[in-house]
Every structure is written in C-alpha cells, then in structure tokens.
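Bench log, entry 3. Co-assembly request; chain sequences pasted below exactly as received.
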Amino acid sequence: MAVFAANAGAEAAKELNVSAIVMFLIFVGATLGITYWAAKRTKSAKDFYTAGGGITGFQNGMAIAGDYMSAASFLGISGLVYASGYDGLIYSIGFLVGWPVILFMIAEPLRNLGKYTFADVASYRLRQTPVRILAAFGSIATVILYLIAQMVGSGKLIQLLFGLDYEVAVFIVGILMILYVTFGGMLATTWVQIIKAFLLLSGATFMAVAVMAHYNFNFGSLFAHAVELKDVSIMAPGKLVSDPISAISLAVALIFGVAGLPHILMRFFTVADAKEARKSVFYATGFIGYFYILTFIIGFGAIVMVLGKPEYLDLAKQAISGGSPILGGNNMAAIHLSHAVGGDFFLGFISAVAFATILAVVSGLTLAGASAISHDLYSSVIRKGQVDSVTEMKVSKAATVALGIVAILLGIAFESQNIAFMVGLAFAIAASANFPILFLSMYWRRLTTRGAVVGGSLGLGTAVLLLILGPAVWVDVLGNAEAIFPYKYPALFSMTVAFVATYIFSITDNSQSAKEEQEKFEAQFIRSQTGIGAEGASEH
Amino acid sequence: MNKELVEQIKNDPNYKELVAKRTSFALILSVIMLVVYFGFILLIAYFPHVLGTPLGSDTVTTVGIPVGMGVIFFAFILTGIYTKRANSEFDDLNNKIKNSLKDI
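Structure output for the full assembly:
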C-alpha cells in the first residue's frame, strides 16, 4: 500500500473519462439507495456500530476482504508485480498470513467479550478510564494515519482516472463517506463494502482470465513471454527483502498489525456469535488469497500487454529518463491492462470500481474512528456509561462528520507530502499498542491496568519514535543524510517493548485493584471461550 | 457471571476438554503458520537463489512460484481445518456446557 502512495506522483489531470463517470454515478446512486434503506433500520447505537449484529459469516467475510482490498493494495500490489515481478507476491503474502492467526487467537474471544469496539475487550476487567483512553487513542491514531494515506492516494488516483481536480476528488470522497456513515451506519458501510468487494473481485477475475486465455491458461508461457520482454530477475526474489531484521520486522508489523486494526476488529461485532465470526475469517482469507493471486496474474499481464505499448507510454517521462515508463506510473499498470483487455468500457468499469473501493474503505475507517470517539471516549470515559443509546448514536454521527471534515482537510494538506510511511506507521501502532493489550487482556491472567497502560503507551511511543528516526521519515521526509535508527519497519522492536513493559509493570503491580483484576480473569475467560453471557445477536 | 456459576463451569469436564483441546489446536496451527511464513521470509533473506532456481531446464518458472502460491493456499487451508473442527467438535462441547446450565 505504501508503494502506491509513494508512486502515485503528481500527474497532470487527464481528459474527463465519460464511461467511468457514468458507471461511477450508477454505483453512487445504488449505494445511496442502500444508505437510505439502512438509515430506516438504524435506530439504536447497536444498529449504528454493528448493523444490529445480524450480518452472516459469509457477508462479513466479504466485507472484511473488502476492507482489506483497498484501491492502494489492488493498484499498488499489481504495480509492484509489474515493476519487480516476484517481489509483489512476497509483499502480498505478508498481508495474508495475519488472517489465520486472527482466526486461531483473536476472532472468537473478541466476539464473545466485546460489544462495539476492541476497547470493550481490552477494558473488560481493567479500569475503564485509563484503558479506554489508551485504546481509543491507539484506534484514532491508526484510523487517521490510514485515512490520510487513503485520501491522498485517492485524490491522486481520481485526478488521474476521472480528470477531476485533486481538491474536488478529495471533497467528493469525504462528502460521500460522511453520507454513508452518518445516515446508514455500519449496515450501509457493510453493504457498500460487500458490493464493492464483489465488483472488484469480478473485475479482477475477468482481467486475469483474459490474460491467461492468451496463453491457453498456461502459466509457463505467460512467464516466458514476460521474461522475454523484461528480464529473468522478475521470477526471483529481488530487493524487497534485503536484510533479515527488516524482513522480520515488516512481517511482524503485517501479521500482528492486522490483529490491531480497529476497523477490521470492529467487523467481528456485526455477526451473531463466535461461530459466525470464525466463518467470517475463513471466507475473508479465501477471498483475500484469491485476490492476491489475481493481482499477481494482473501484474504479469501488464508486463506482456501494457509494457512498451505506445498507447500507454509516457512520452514526456521517457524523454527525460528513458526506458518505457507508463502513463501515471507503475501503479496504473492494472488500469492500463483493463483497457488492453476490455477497451474503453472495461477501463471505465475498473476506474469506477477503484473509486468505489476508496469510498468503501474510508467509510469503514471513519466508522471505526467515530466509534472510538463516541463509545470509548464519550460514553465510557466522560459519561461513565450513563448514557442512552440514542444520545450515544448522535455523538457518533457528530464524530463521523467531524472525522470526515478532518479527513478532507488533511487530505488536502498532505497532497504534496511524502505519505508513504503512513500506512506503515498505522500497522506499527496497531501491532505495538492495540494488539499486545488486546491479546494479553484475553489470555494473560496477571495483566493489570498499570501494565496495560504503561506497556501500550510505551509500544505506541516507541513505534512513533523509531519510525521518525528511521529512514522513512528521517531521510525521506526530513531530508537528513543518514537515519539514526537503521530499519524502515519498527514493529519488531516496538512490539517487543510493549510486551516486555506490560509484563514487568503487571507482575510488579501489588495494588488491591490489580488483585481484583486478576481475580476477574476466570469469569472473563469462561465467557471468551464459551460465549456464555456474550452480547446477543439482534435486539429486534 | 456469579461465583458459583464460574466454579460450576470451571469444573465441568466438557469445559476443561474444550479449553484444553481448542487452546492446543489453535496454538499448534498458529505456530505452523508462523513457522511456514517466517521460514519463507528467512529463506528469501538468507538463500535468495533457492526460490530463483528454475523448475526445469526448459522453463523460466522458478521454484518460488509454486512455493509462494503454496503459502497462500496453505494459509487458507489452515483456516478451513480450524473452522471445520471448531464448527463440529468444539461447538458440540460448547453446547453440552450450555445445556448443562439449563438443567439447574
């Protein structure tokens, strides 16, 4: 994803793409219709946060996959395969392997213990105020970083695909996202995500099949042709994994970061019970794995069908730097391929799907951020739980509007900034602050409030500090010659700090409240394992 | 959940069986997944030429292609294995625990 944000580049706006705009308007019309339908069914805070808890495992699996298949990962990974071949596959595998671990460790206890946010679980037997504040802070930080990356990426993408101004593009995304979330809550957000996931998977399947059909569905011939056009290095690991420490640190961020992303964790509360939560991950892993195989084929397809073709060549860039650069940079490889296999009409379809993808992903993020503000900060910390469901929902909606405006403003403010590090930082914070607290609260009896707060804060602080001192910010953004911290991905170190600090500050906590918190573990563990006493499904 | 209920469930043999079986199963599968993935990454970091070796003399397809695709399928298959056992065996045990509470 970071790859995408880095390379989207400041491209001149293309001419207006009519078929793409018509198809996009159809999508917007349909999703606003869904929002209207969902708005009538969203009456309580529970409806707003969890779609009433009535989403099936299959639907939720599709929605989770949709959250994960952002425009950045679709275009970025296929662009990476197009540029470096096998490295793209290595990168995408990293994004997938966190899912089985979520299933084995997190999904069911999370569903059994939580209500609306992962902070419900983290603070289940600990002191509400400090743990909620920390968890909400971790959630909001993750959400905002992710949002900025998505907004900036989307502004540039839409500028390129639709010929709209950057500011106009960011504004449209922000307004539509506010409409979906404020009126339709989780129900609309989920269905927008499901529809988009279906469209994206269908479009990507069509492209992959069209490519493979040229080669009689023989991978060997496709690879042979691609190697002929590029060189043999695309079939082997390249520069992506350089030194083992960076490789392991990135792997840690990806695997455990997923298990700490608030907008993903929140999806587990939309299903009826642990069984459906479990099925959600099974389907999600299948869809995501399938999607990554498609992006791999699409990347190779772009090598054989886009590379060197005059209609996709960026002549201005070629005049300066030589080679055969494609219009819009490598991340446009999948978009150009859609034109190569399906003409203007299919190009319009894929462009519209890319736009839809951005909308769906930012909506999910905003809803997760709004829940952290309204449910964790307002309802649990400020009002100590003494608030009715309707008021809480109103606060959520206000928070959604506020986050939407913040996202638009930050999207515009960061237009020409180097934001490549932001998704990496979001994953690092998720892996170093959110995940350790969530995991230990579920499985470790001796966790205390003091341990969780100190460990989580240190994890978060270390992740931010090491990233600033590392090459991604210290060199690329601040322009220093050499990084103080040599590794690009801090998660291995910051997550270790979080676990060690949580451990030390918990076992040395001899306070009376610590003792009580440890005594409450048994009951919590029984509920997490059996679901006895868990938040029920639909209330109506 | 009150204290007696906690004690009762805690001492329920079905509960003990459920926790023991599920915990060890989840742990084993997680370790397998992590070993496979970190093995893959370390293989690339230390022996990059292994995955770059062609499968045969008449093809450009390298060992890395089936291995990489294999990791993706493997991840999916592991989720399937867990889900299947949890849907039957673990859910049956869980239902026994819940039913025994209804009798009181």
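Residues 111 and 274 of chain A are 6 Å apart (CA to CA). The two ends of chain A are 40 Å apart (CA to CA).
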